[in-house]
Structure formats: C-alpha cells, structure tokens
Amino acid sequence: xxxxxxxxxxxxxxxxxxxxxxxxxxxxxxxxxxxxxxxxxxxxxxxxxxxxxxxxxxxxxxxxxxxxxxxxxxxxxxxxxxxxxxxxxxxxxxxxxxxxxxxxxxxxxxxxxxxxxxxxxxxxxxxxxxxxxxxxxxxxxxxxxxxxxxxxxxxxxxxxxxxxxxxxxxxxxxxxxxxxxxxxxxxxxxxxxxxxxxxxxxxxxxxxxxxxxxxxxxxxxxxxxxxxxxxxxxxxxxxxxxxxxxxxxxxxxxxxxxxxxxxxxxxxxxxxxx
Length: 274
Fold this sequence. Notes:
By secondary structure, this protein is mainly alpha-helical.
C-alpha cells in the first residue's frame, strides 16, 4: 500500500474510532481563579487555563494531536494515528533502501568489479546508475604509459559514449576524425571526457554475468522506490505537524484565546469519507 492511500484509509478509520469531529463545549478563555489568603482578606490569582495558553499550538507542533487533547477535542486520535503510521512508513522505507543499497554495492564490488585491484572504493550515485545502464565501463586510456592519451572509442561502453558526446559538443568538423591534438576543439573534448569518464579504479564489466546484472538492476529499482516512499512519508510527518499546530491555534482563537476577542464561537471539523 502506497503512502497516500494508506494514510487516507488510516485517517478514515481513526475518525470513525474518534467519533464525530465536532468541538467540545466552548469554555471562555479566562484564567482559572485561585484564592490566596492575604492580610487584608483574600486575593484572586488569575492563572491561564490550558486551552487558552500560548504554548498549546507549540505542543501540537511538537507532537501532533497533543494540543487537541489539551483542548478536549476527539480528533487528536486522527493526528496521532497519522503520525504513527507515517513515522513507521518512513523507518520501513529507509530500512529497505539501506538493505538494497548494501545489496547492489556488494554485487558491483564482487561481480562487476571483481577483476579491479582495490575494488573496495565506493562511487557516487551517478556511477552506480551508469552501471545499471551499461554492460561495461570501457577503458579510460587505450594507450597507458605511452605518453599519448587515447580515450575509449567503443560506443557500446560507458566511456565510449562519453567520448562520443565530448566530440559532438566540442564542435569537431567530423566527430569521427580527430582534429589536431593541439587545437581548441580537441582539448575541449578531452577536458569534457576526463571530467566524466570512469577511471581505472572504477572500471566494471557485467560480461558473462547477466543474472547478477539483472539482480543488480532490480536492487537499484527497489532502492529507488523505497527512498521515494520514505521521502513521501517524511513529507506527511511535516504536514501533520503543521496542520495540528494550525488547528490548535485556530481553535484557541475561536474560543477567545491567544489575544482573540472572547465569545462563544465553535470550530466544527469534518473529514469526508469516500
């Protein structure tokens, strides 16, 4: 069940359990009178009641539903239910992403990069995404140790596609024919290639490992989905905090608290169930 659908079902269920969403009888936003003895008789000490205190909205911001509970409103159940569900969903999504990340890192290290000395190095996300799309990285320099830098030309490899793109973007008269190696177009192409091609320490190949490559791509997709879902749940948590805080603030204002004129206003809320 995805985040939006699950939360909609949860809110509807919590609303039914909480009962009709209507405000409790309004209490004027006045202080609780406490009598204290004095030499001249008694003196009334005005202390703010909880539902008119300025910190009630902040309590809802810290823990959704807490302010509604202090105000005696039954819809605090819905806020707490959404908070619990969203946090649980976020933690589950994050755990799934972490598990899948460890899995695709291990496949890349132990299979695709098994022939590379020092294959423990970890690349950035773009690197692992490139491994998902390309069978091989290709070499970085076709003639190492000769003093002449020769980029990969096999366009079936990742580095080969980078070199082709570099030649096209550098406005060579003919991308298939090298211009003078001292010319500005050639130097621009080499600079583009060097900044984006995969070096020897990150070379990979899925050749003769089609099954493992399929598992790798599946793990990448599951990790992406889990990460996206975790972010959705985190957004729900943030929205739930804000809504609960605004709800508590508006309720206090309507009940004459937080600087509002006193009266007998009521706040009625309804959650449509379709």
